[in-house]
Amino acid sequence: MRVSVQPEDFDLADALKGFGRAPNTGATVSFTGLVRDDTGTLDHMEIEHYPGMCEAAITKIAEEAATRWSLTDCLVIHRFGQLRPGDQIMMVATAARHRVEAFEAAEYLMDYLKSRAPFWKKEVTREGADWVAAKEADEDALKRW
Questions:
Q1: What is the DSSP secondary structure assignment for residue 111, as one 8-state letter?
Q2: Residue 51: its pLDDT value, please?
Q3: In the chain, what's the furthest Cα-to-Cα distance?
Q4: Which residues contact 140 (CB under 8 A, 6 or more apart)?
Q5: How far does Cα 48 stand from its chain's mean position?
Q6: Residues 93, 75: Cα–Cα separation, whole Å
Q7: Is 54 in contact with 118 (CB distance < 8 Å)?
Q8: 134 pLDDT above the threshold of 90
Q9: For residue range 94-104, what is the model confidence (pLDDT) as tens digits?
Q10: pTM for this prediction
Q11: What is the Rg, in whole angstroms, of the alpha carbon atoms belonging to the chain?
Q12: Three-state DSSP class for 47?
């Protein structure tokens, strides 16, 4: 298992090199989130976190996912700092004996990262800057677990 909270971009191929190669792995799933510009006015997003606390919180939920779905491998990368539309913001990869477990664990981790991981996000547009508020849909997605 690997958790990384980092300012620098990541290469998908490098991140997944050797991932999920345990002999009992039958499926791997990966998801990459990108900074999206819903309004056409986003200049950049600023993501802040509390070093140490953030990694510990993500590691804890990744360990829970690994146990709950009997994962053979797990990877979470989340970036912080200034990110522009189209930039990679995060990646989750899971490996398990079967695809259902790999998919469910990946969805669980993504839902957690979206609603509970200790990041603070500010959108900076031509009109100004606003902190991103939690969305009810993200909270509802987490409730299913």
A1: H
A2: 94
A3: 53
A4: none
A5: 14
A6: 5
A7: yes
A8: no
A9: 999 999 999 99
A10: 0.93
A11: 16
A12: strand
Residue corresponding to tokens 């189209």 = 86
**8 A C-beta contact, residue 52 and residue 90:** no
Q: Is 109 exposed, middle or buried (0-12, 13-18, 19+ CB in 10 A)?
A: buried
51-81 pLDDT, tens digit per residue, is 999 999 999 999 999 999 999 999 999 999 9
Domains of the chain: 2-143 (3.90.1170.40)
The two tokens of residue 1 are: 């298992």
Q: By three-state DSSP, how is residue 34 classified?
A: strand
Residue the block writes with tokens 């997605």? 141
What number of CA atoms fall less than 13 Å from residue 91's CA on the CB side?
21
Q: Which two tokens stand for residue 139?
A: 């909270």
Q: Are 92 and 115 in contact (CB under 8 A)?
A: no
**DSSP letters for 60-90:** HHHHHHHHHTT-SEEEEEEE-EEE-TT-EEE
